[in-house]
Amino acid sequence: MALIRTGTTSRPDVQPSAFHTLRATPDNVHWGYFDASIAPALTIKSGDLIYAEALTHHAGDAPHLMMDDTLHALWKAIPEHDRNPGVHIMTGPIYVAGAQPGDMLEVRYLNMRPRCRYGSNLAANWGYLYKEMGEKERVTIYELDDAANHASALYAYDFKGKYLTPGTITDCPVCDRESALAGVRIPARPHLGTAGVAPAVNGRVSTIPPGRHGGNIDNWRIGAGATMYYPVQVPGALFSIGDPHVSQGDGEVSGTAIESSLNVTLQIVLRKDFSFPAPLLETADSWIVHGFDPQLDQALRNASLDTMLLLEEHVGLSRNDAYSLMSVAGDVGITQVVDATLGAHVRIPRGIFPALEHK
Predict the structure, then answer these.
(1) Which of 57, 100, 200, 341 has CB 3.0 to 4.6 Å from 233, enough for a Cys bridge?
(2) Which CATH number covers residue 222?
């Protein structure tokens, strides 16, 4: 089994044979689900580069600021009854030639650029403190400063109702708008909340829960410069992206991040030389292993056990050494607490390992 790169080794060069553009047209998106039976929107070879549009279903929170012609076309083309069982607009799927169950997709996220200067945070009915906040839903609209790489709150308003339908137009131009978070600056961290391969399941699979196929992981570190490894579950992998964010904290406690559409450049490399049971994140300085379960304790246990597997099978540590290292150098975190299937992660710094060659 091949060794994943440590902090002292360089990324192998993979020359792309083609560059593709994947627009978020009605024919190229699926709203609210993964499905192994839908036709690919794009077919690529390993190593190819893709420029893809990832659109937020929360653009209706401020349509005059966040909806362009592309989003208006999707809202018109895809009726509300066909936006299920999840909520996210997914661009794809991308068919990777030669990909088979048991392989891994190495997805290198190269660039993520906001499509507009605004984003929305909805304190939603699925938020962690919804009851404690009086069962009220509230929208805060943020403005992005590209030059300073931060976001600041522009205004906020209470949504009179309950956000239940994906793509709901919550905007209320005549309602009371309040100033919010005056003087507070939030670091911009563009990333994808949801991405993954099609699960080996008949019919539609909701985009809301994360799982071993990827899905709604909601880790803000899945941004430009990061690499994700996804276990392939069906022939061709059928990889899709969606749920773009411009900033989020660990936990995503109100129910959403700063939701805003992104243009994403990525490279997909087919890996047949190693396997891993869960989505694995590689950043410039760390490996991050994810675990999922309806119970947070079990989600953390799953992440911890898979971290042990990473250290044993891909670094070559003994089980006892791996357990010790995870305790003294690993950082445990809560990824998100609002998707019913909860997420935890374990971060292992890559720079602590000596330079190692592939086995």
Answers:
(1) 200
(2) 2.60.120.580
